From TrEMBL:
GO cellular component, as recorded: A band; perinuclear region of cytoplasm; Z disc
InterPro entries noted in UniProt: ARM-like, ARM-type_fold, Armadillo, TPR-like_helical_dom_sf, TPR_rpt, UCS_central_dom
Domain of life: Eukaryota
The name this protein goes by in its record: Protein unc-45 homolog B
UNC-45/Cro1/She4 central domain residues: 308-494
Species per Swiss-Prot/TrEMBL record: Frankliniella fusca
GO molecular function, one term: Hsp90 protein binding
Subcellular localization: Cytoplasm, Myofibril, Sarcomere, A band; Cytoplasm, Myofibril, Sarcomere, Z line; Cytoplasm, Perinuclear region
Length: 938
């Protein structure tokens, strides 16, 4: 008997016993929790702790968490060396992690210490074969590598052959045997030497990609490569004008960071704290080099963008702590320096930037600020920005003031609160308005942009309308198109400050339509450059809050096509304007829920009540969505989805979701790559953006065959976003659509069903089976019906719970579809599980439930009923006796004799009766009772 701990608390032994009980019930998480408690309470390393560790390892193995299983087994073996169970489980973990040589070593050790262990013998034989094959493969690979080296690094060889050899080496580097052989053969130094001399782009790219593949998920090799080449080498190859080369170099740097921090390339992957601590120096060196390079005067614009993207992609991971480190090493000042560049104004610039650089800086600054979780951290952020602004304004040069305004615009487009904080300082807005009122074209342009960016909060809009409208109107008369279009956007933004409220119009009636027409002229004019069209799109993004403008624009095919073509360029600076315009056309913006009682209270209190325009009724919205989809908006959204801005991704997801609300458009979305673009957005981004993308995927999964909508690996990747919609904070519609999509997926194959179970979807799905809402209850039951095909779920239903019993109750549900699904699940369960057959009798009303199925006028339900009874009759004599003791047999006989009855119902009714005969619970009509009595006596 296990003893209680101090003060009545459970002892480690009691926790272990509870863990064992949970393990037997297939409750792996519960078992892990109990074993962990036992480990925590056992201070000293001894045989008892070793048992807890290897038991927890067994539970981790069941959950396919092989890294943790490996760690626990190693810890157990440190305490009790050569323990057969610990060795065996570590062997299993190592094999699952594709480390067969180490697994084979442990298997041999098990055989040595426990020669009678029969379980290890097939494992030993299998691993021996794998290891021998790998040795053979390694030998062959070494020969291949040697031949490829001869060609690839021979500068006198034919170019085509060298390209092919390097491409083959990239493929080979993706395999463990190939990467090991190449690394041992000194490929790193050979590639480094090659890239110093090589001019051919394909060969150069091949060399860079080989290094990237060698660094992937191999810590020791990555450290050795960093030691040999150094971070500056990677920054050097990043510094070029060729996009493919920049992308390959950026991939290398991200792969190095992933390996050092324990991440993978999957969107949901996160750094591991212990690895980040272990490799802190290397990670910090990487960050420092990136930050100091971002302001390099010799760096290419594409290279600079790649560095900023690397920072923003990784700055939100708390384990890396890059957000706080960036502030500490004055990285914010360097980013503001980049944001202040004037190249796009045709002004001599100290740094090379692209059209997307300033937008990327805005997003990066916003991402850093988002991760300032404490007041002190936010204050440090603002102080750093303050230092930059003061440092620039302290000098008398006009250029410094212009640069401050340009950098401030980027700040307002990123962390808005910080930008507003700076704009609110004494004299700052006045300085900007003075610049706008000068005759200097450069000052006019930068001041216009800053006014536009600052017009985001209502209190700012009021002051700017009073001070700046006349200046903007004057600038709109300029002969310079660049100034005219910026002034136009400023007027558009101020004119749209009433939002979607049809009762608020800051400017005179008809003004917004005139402004929209001016934007349209800039947008579709072939003589205007891309920058003009980008500004025109931004103007429309404000004006399309007006329903009249929406209807006029949607009828203008030339303007819609111009917006779509602008989106396809992928220009980061154009993303906001184009996407927001589409969001407004689709009415996909967030709407405040209107509660009738609150409206009445507002009227009574004489508050202003927003009014919807009649052109924003559902019929008009539906028409606009169909037009946009047919004009090719999906291809534009796919191009725009590459943005690093989470806010822009949310807007893109909103448009996708609005289009997917129309059933007839979902196939078009899939054909044009929409489902593929939605998956990353459903895994990472803003909370609302993730929900919108997940709902769009759910809608696609309802209508389109999942094998077509989510081919290959995608039908597994889509599961997590769908399960995320099964949350109390999501709407009933989101819950319902997610359940329908999961139902379709669960019917695909066992891999998909296992993933749904692994992602902890079952308890969430089952929760909706208890809902009062009929549609939710029905959809959840249908998902379970398809999931029951999985042996894993059958084991769960066999456990110590009421899952099977609840299906019995649901099979008598008033809603025929729910009853059909529950009965279908029971039919499958009782066909494969004798335990579940017995569980049916634990329900007090089991007879009534089965009678309601057998007597139901719906043939589908009747068929399921006889199928269940037949399964029960065949499962065991004990179960059959319970059926016989009721009037169910009479109902079966009646069903079997019905002349106009369904043939399948008759068939299973007869089979159930035959089972009763075989168990000798009933006799055939006309059988000799004396003969039967004689047989009984024997």
């Amino acid at each position: 008997m296990a003893k209680e701990g101090v003060n009545g608390e459970k002892s480690p032994q009691q926790w272990k016993e509870e863990g064992n009980a949970a393990f037997k019930e297939s409750d792996w998480e519960g078992a892990i929790h109990c074993y962990s408690k036992a480990i925590q309470l056992t201070k000293e390393d001894g045989p008892e702790k070793s048992v807890f560790l290897k038991n927890r390892a067994a539970a981790y193995l069941k959950m396919n968490d092989n890294e943790k299983a490996l760690s626990d087994c190693s810890a157990a073996l440190d305490i009790v060396p050569n323990d057969p169970k610990s060795l065996f489980r570590r062997c299993q973990a190592l094999e699952a992690l594709d480390r067969p040589e180490e697994a084979y070593r442990d298997a041999r050790q098990v055989h040595t210490v426990d020669p009678g262990n029969k379980a290890i013998q097939p494992v030993l034989a299998r691993l021996h074969k794998i290891v021998q094959e790998r040795l053979k493969l390694m030998s062959q690979t070494s020969n291949k590598v040697a031949k490829m080296f001869e060609i690839a690094f021979d500068m006198t060889a034919e170019r085509d052959k060298r390209e092919q050899a390097l491409n083959n080496m990239v493929v080979l580097a993706r395999e463990n045997a190939g990467s090991d052989a190449m690394f041992k053969a000194g490929v790193v130094s050979k590639v480094a030497s090659l890239l110093k001399l090589e001019k051919n782009e394909e060969i150069f790219l091949g060399g860079v990609r080989i290094i990237g593949e060698l660094c992937k998920e191999h810590l020791e090799r990555t450290k050795a490569i960093l030691q040999e080449l150094g971070v500056p080498w990677f920054l050097d190859i990043l510094n070029c004008q060729k996009e493919q080369q920049v992308n390959a170099s950026q991939y290398c740097l991200q792969t190095i960071l992933n390996t050092l921090s324990g991440m993978t390339n999957k969107p949901e992957s996160k750094p591991k704290t212990e690895l980040c601590e272990q490799n802190k120096n290397e990670i910090d060196t990487l960050l420092t080099c990136l930050v100091f390079s971002v302001t390099s005067r010799t760096l290419s614009g594409l290279g600079r963008d790649a560095i900023i993207e690397l920072l923003m992609r990784n700055v939100h991971y708390s384990a890396l702590n890059w957000a706080h480190r960036l502030v500490e090493i004055r990285g914010l000042q360097r980013l503001m320096e980049v944001a202040s560049e004037l190249k796009e104004y045709k002004y001599e610039s100290a740094m090379e930037i692209t059209d997307s650089t300033r937008s990327l800086v805005s997003v990066c600054l916003a991402r850093i600020y988002e991760n300032m979780y404490y007041d002190r951290a936010r204050q440090d952020f603002i102080s750093n920005i303050d230092d930059y602004v003061k440092g620039k304004l302290i000098t008398p040069e006009l250029e410094s003031k212009v640069r401050v305004v340009v950098a401030l615009t980027s700040l307002l487009l990123g962390p808005l609160d910080v930008g507003n904080n700076i704009v609110a300082r004494d004299g700052m807005m006045e300085m900007i308005l003075v610049m706008a009122g000068t005759d200097d074209v450069l000052q006019q342009k930068v001041a216009c942009e800053c006014i536009i960016a600052a017009s985001s909060k209502k209190d700012k809009v009021k002051s700017i309308i009073s001070q700046g409208v006349n200046i903007l109107k004057k600038l709109y008369q300029s002969k310079d198109d660049g100034i005219r279009v910026r002034a136009l956007v400023g007027l558009c933004k101020l004119g749209s400050s009433g939002g979607t409220d049809a009762s608020i119009r800051p400017f005179a009636d008809g003004a917004t339509t005139k402004l929209a027409e001016a934007c349209r002229r800039f947008l579709i004019s072939p003589s205007k450059d891309a920058d003009m069209r980008r500004w025109a799109a931004e103007g429309l993004s404000y004006l399309t809050l007006d329903a009249d403008v929406k209807e006029k624009l949607i009828a203008d095919k030339a303007a819609i096509q111009a917006l779509i073509e602008l989106a396809k360029t992928g220009n980061q600076a154009a993303v906001y304007g184009v996407v927001t315009t589409f969001v407004n056309l689709c009415n996909a913006y967030e709407k405040q829920e209107v509660i009738p009682e609150m409206v009445e209270l507002a009227k009574f209190a004489k508050h202003h009540i927003p009014e919807d325009h009649e052109l924003d009724d559902p019929d008009f919205i539906s028409k606009r969505l169909i037009i946009l989809a047919k004009e090719g908006i999906t291809t534009a959204l796919v191009a725009l989805a590459k943005t690093e801005s989470h806010n822009s991704k949310e807007l893109i997801a909103r448009i996708f979701n609005a289009i997917c609300s129309q059933q007839e458009l979902r196939g078009l979305v899939v054909q044009q790559g929409g489902a593929k673009a939605l998956l990353p957005m459903a895994l990472e981004g803003t909370e609302k953006g993730i929900r919108q993308a997940a709902q769009a995927l759910a809608r696609i999964g309802i209508t389109i065959n999942p094998e077509v909508a989510f081919p290959g690996q995608r039908n597994v990747e889509v599961i997590r976003p769908l399960i995320s919609l099964l949350h109390p904070e999501c709407t009933a519609l989101e819950n319902f659509e997610a359940l329908l999509a999961l139902c379709n997926l669960a019917g695909l194959n066992e891999t998909v069903r296992s993933r749904i179970i692994k992602e902890h979807g079952v308890p969430k799905i089952e929760g909706y089976m208890f809902e009062d809402h009929e549609m939710l209850r029905r959809a959840a039951t249908q998902v379970i019906t398809n999931l029951i095909l999985s042996p894993e779920l059958v084991k769960m239903y066999e456990g110590n719970n009421d899952k099977t019993k609840y299906l019995v109750l649901l099979s008598a549900d008033e809603d025929i579809e729910t009853a059909m699904a529950a009965a279908g699940a029971l039919a499958q369960l009782t066909a494969v599980s004798k335990k579940c057959c017995k569980k049916i009798f634990e329900v007090d009303t089991w007879v009534e439930s089965i009678q309601s199925l057998l007597g139901n006028p719906d043939v589908g339900l009747q068929y399921r009923g006889v199928y269940i009874v037949n399964n029960l009759m065949q499962s065991s004599k004990e179960v059959a006796e319970k059926i016989i003791s009721t009037n169910i047999m009479e109902i079966l006989m009646a069903l079997s004799l019905l002349e106009d009855g369904d043939e399948k119902v008759k068939k299973y009714a007869l089979e159930a009766l035959k089972s009763a005969e075989q168990w000798k619970l009933i006799k055939k009509p006309g059988a000799n009772s004396d003969e039967e009595n004689e047989e009984d006596l024997e």
